[in-house]
Amino acid sequence: MISYLSKRFLFLIPLWIGISIIGFIFIQLSPGDPAEILLQKEGIEPTPEAIETMRSKLGLNDPPYIQYIRWLWKLIHMDIGVSYKTGEPVINELLNRLPATLELTLVSFGFIVILSLMIGLLSALNKHGIFDRVGVLMAIMGASIPSFWLGLILIYLFSIKLRWFPIMGRGSVYHLVLPALTLSFGTLIVQARLLRTSLQEVLRKDFIMTALAKGVSRKRILIRHALPNAVLPLMTNLGLILGRLLGGAVIVETIFAWPGIGRLAVESILQRDYPVIQGYLLLTALIFVFINLCVDVGYRLIDPRIELDR
Amino acid sequence: MKILGLIIISTLLILSLCGPYLIPHSPLEINLNRRFEGPNKIYPFGTDHLGRCVLSRLIEGARRSLSSALLTQTIALFIGISIGLLSGYRGGGVDFLLMRLVDLTLAFPSLILSLALIGLIGPGLQNAMIAFALVHWAIYARFVRGLVLEIKGKQFIEAARSLGVGPFRMITHHYLPNIFSPLLILTSLDTGRVIFTLSGLSFLGLGAQPPIPDWGAMLNEGRLYLSTSPHLMLFPGLAIFIAVMGFYLLGEGMVEYKKDFSFLGTRSKNKD
Questions:
Q1: Residue A13: is its pLDDT beyond 70?
Q2: What pLDDT was estimated at residue B261?
Q3: Does A126 fall in a domain?
Q4: Which of A253, B190, B218, B251 could form a disulfide with A263 if both were Cys (CB 3.0 to 4.6 A apart)?
Q5: Are B85 and B48 in contact (CB under 8 A)?
Q6: B115, B193, B233, B250: best to mutate for the A interface, most A CBs within 10 A
């Protein structure tokens, strides 16, 4: 296991370097001369001489690879510059907002796991029943409903008309319900459908027949024998789902005025606050790669049939 | 179900082609005396905060959504097919480097990388399209490479090579025809997602800017009047929903059609 883990980490190093290069290129390509911006912030008139002095002071005249190494050194020490707008270190801004996004993403993820299990089991139980048929229709709808529209409909129905939930913002558990539902709905329905198909495939296997012949109850077969086997192929999707949730959070956070990093990113783009955008890009890539690693390792831990050192 | 997808897409095509002749009002015509009207006889889908006809804007929006999605797909496909073909056909170091580039692009959630690119080149529909295409190609590149590697081992390729077919003719006459239909299915399934993403970016204010009648931008404008005029939110969202579903159903239909007619795929084999 340890050798597998270290191997996986080694494989990730080129990816990390690639991601950091993209982040570096991003800030290099962003319009505006950092020297000029810094001079203006300090209230010094940006004459060509002053800019030139500042540039050599900042090391902007060095070859790109030296600049990259210097930038990387700062990155390793969690220094990714200061926001053009607030003057705060970018890392502080991101870390202040990160818990809100993680909360929303993890609750949505919980919704997906619990509800898709329930729906998947129910529709596998009454195969070709009404619940199952509605499921097909719902799966197509779930795959195509835009989250930004669903969010607005939910706000209109449950916040404005019925007044069950607050319209926007973050605070109590009630604030979480609608955003998390909006973020998870599409994925949840599709996953339930995949689980149903997978369950039905497993239910046709010989060992299920053996269990039936032994006189195990139907319920026990479904939950103890079939479900663990049916869930396994869906596990590989988890990383992808979490990535999609992180991306989708941008839209959901904007609709519900949720103070997370996604909304921060949209605000920064509109205000052309490049260091914050860069920080957001690096942070989400870091989280995304880390999640995928966890999913891979977890998958191999759960299913011993998969060889660890592949 | 498959038929439904076909119906939706052909309706959208007709609407976008004949839109200018069908719309009851100009999509940009402002009438401040008739703001926030609900659906009525003159304005079947009501009017927005500037008194513009929602139906006309939706129909005009269909043309824009379809054309921008197709253009984005064309750019993404062009890059994706070129790189996928090169990677699969050449193999070796070229393949390794190109696939690492693909890995890197797919290491970011696609919406987030598009957001960062828009951050770099600035908001706007054109920029949103470019940004998304520059992220989206990676999926096609990987898919095409996979197909090429699969075909590479087949006998008809070996036969063609032993007959002395050059690389250019090899690609245009032997590889491309064989990757065409699976690629078409993927493209159709994906076009819905492109419409979805582009309208999402417009909804965030990073894509099409007002007063352009774009579905996502309309939804963003309508959001402000959610409690008083819900029809401003309802119709544009419904349009996106139906369009995305149409492409999805069409793609699913094609998958089944392909299953029924899979013997057609052997055409090229017999020829060589």
A1: yes
A2: 53
A3: yes
A4: A253
A5: no
A6: B115
